[in-house]
């Protein structure tokens, strides 16, 4: 499916609710490759201020559970109500390693601009996430990372580097997914929307975006990429 979710919301609303590189660009590129079933039940994991959750409901017609740790559920619920989506999107405040859902609750899990915060170990998928997917359910992830591995953080990148940020290469994420016996990795790719998604994020008034402007001017396309991962829960 090819769709432009940025047409669903005003430019101002997008700038006010982004929490990183434009998640709508990343969402659309992911879903163009992932064959989610019609009217799927989707967990939007690390949904931030709910922009992707609203796009999944309004633009794609899915029923969405919008889960985030940093944004209060009541704030997201208010946004969903104002958008007329209370019947399609449910806001939940939770931690990714303590998800309060029944087994096989979802047809798909989508996670954008958040995966690196909680999923960078071999146990997360098998222990915390895959049990929530039905057999054959899909995983679609857009995660910031590195174009190439380096032995030590380059000197010009060091002022912006935070230990534990888990910016990794596509190959690193691919290998981690392959360690999960319950997941079939269908696709792993560098996302074409990377430059545009970052450029749109840097236009926002978010304090983190203002800091990122300097970092991205220094980086100049040498280090960063956005990785796409699409997997399927095995049926056995």
What does this 3D model show about the protein?
Helix 4 links the parallel strand 2 (about 65-70) and strand 3. The chain has helices at about 10-15, 25-35, 50-60, 75-80, 115-120, 120-130, 170-180, 195-200, 205-220, and strands at about 40-45, 65-70, 90-95, 105-110, 135-145, 185-190, 225-235. It has one domain: Vaccinia Virus protein VP39 (Rossmann fold). The chain is about 35% helix and about 25% strand. The protein has nine helices and seven strands. The mean pLDDT is about 95. It has a seven-stranded mixed sheet with strand order 3-2-1-4-5-7-6, sandwiched between helices. The longest helix has 13 residues, at about 205-220. With about 240 residues, the protein is an alpha/beta fold.
